[in-house]
Hints:
Blueprint: H1 2-23, H2 38-53, H3 77-80, H4 85-99, H5 114-127, E1 140-147, H6 154-167, H7 173-176, E2 177-184, E3 194-195, H8 200-205, E4 211-221, E5 227-235, E6 240-245, H9 250-261, H10 281-315
Parallel strand pairs: 1-3
Antiparallel strand pairs: 1-2, 2-4, 4-5, 5-6
Bound molecules: heme C.
Residues 48-49, 51-53, 63, 67, 69-72, 79, 83, 88, 91-92, 96, 101-106, 108, 120 line the site of heme C.
Amino acid sequence: xxxxxxxxxxxxxxxxxxxxxxxxxxxxxxxxxxxxxxxxxxxxxxxxxxxxxxxxxxxxxxxxxxxxxxxxxxxxxxxxxxxxxxxxxxxxxxxxxxxxxxxxxxxxxxxxxxxxxxxxxxxxxxxxxxxxxxxxxxxxxxxxxxxxxxxxxxxxxxxxxxxxxxxxxxxxxxxxxxxxxxxxxxxxxxxxxxxxxxxxxxxxxxxxxxxxxxxxxxxxxxxxxxxxxxxxxxxxxxxxxxxxxxxxxxxxxxxxxxxxxxxxxxxxxxxxxxxxxxxxxxxxxxxxxxxxxxxxxxxxxxxxxxxxxxxxxxxxxx
Length: 318
Ligand code: HEC
């Protein structure tokens, strides 16, 4: 799946470059968002970025001492889908100095051309799982981090915590905070998924009947103690539309994804999730782990919805 998108992108980039060259437009387009050249982007990444961000994009490069801030993990879907291309462009071009982050991300405006930066962005985009993996028709999306039990009225907050405590024996504080992507389709003519900023006027324009669901990037504790990073898609009914690991190594992901595919279509708003169909020991283990993941994800989406309800009250669209 990932492999195919990458190859397609490369083809598109190549064809696009050819057309642009034929028209002699290369320079003209430098300021607009482009589909960059992935292969060249990968070379540039190894040359300029890997020392800090790691050759695999994990954020664990050779340079660790003396750095201010933690080099971003570019494989993290929760982080990278929360940045649009323009944001990535700005941070690469002007570094933390220009974008106001408080770390050692250097500016590359002197060593890299604008086209180089677009090539890098194409490469960065290939490292993480995009939201279209979960809903192909996403046109606009919101992103925000929610901590279960800290959003909404007191009754709502207590209800959230109560439900979790009843279903799961112990919940660690870290599990309560998750990034929620809320996806919308729109009849408009938007070219690609647009990240809608958290501004009241923009939020009020989103139409509830165009909401298609939620995506969360979380982790599942696997058998043998391994932490498995996953992406989860939920529709408006809180039914699982897709659950996949974001491990890119096929040796690791194939078996997990075979297991995770069993949960597609399971779960429903208001129902107590019973993911218990598995017979073997590992399957039973995953039943429990996915139930846990699901409960936490649903409460995070509930936190978004509670905020949405308050917002709609305020602007009279409810
Ligand atoms: C000297 C080490 C260093 C080098 C070299 C470096 N980075 Fe960074 N980068 C960082 C650090 C540290 C951060 C985290 C900054 C912060 O938020 O405090 C960062 C953050 C980022 C972010 C922002 C992610 C976010 O949280 O929004 C992007 C994108 C990024 N780097 C891309 C690149 C690319 C592309 C290159 C190569 C052209 C590169 N970096 C080279 C250290 C480095």
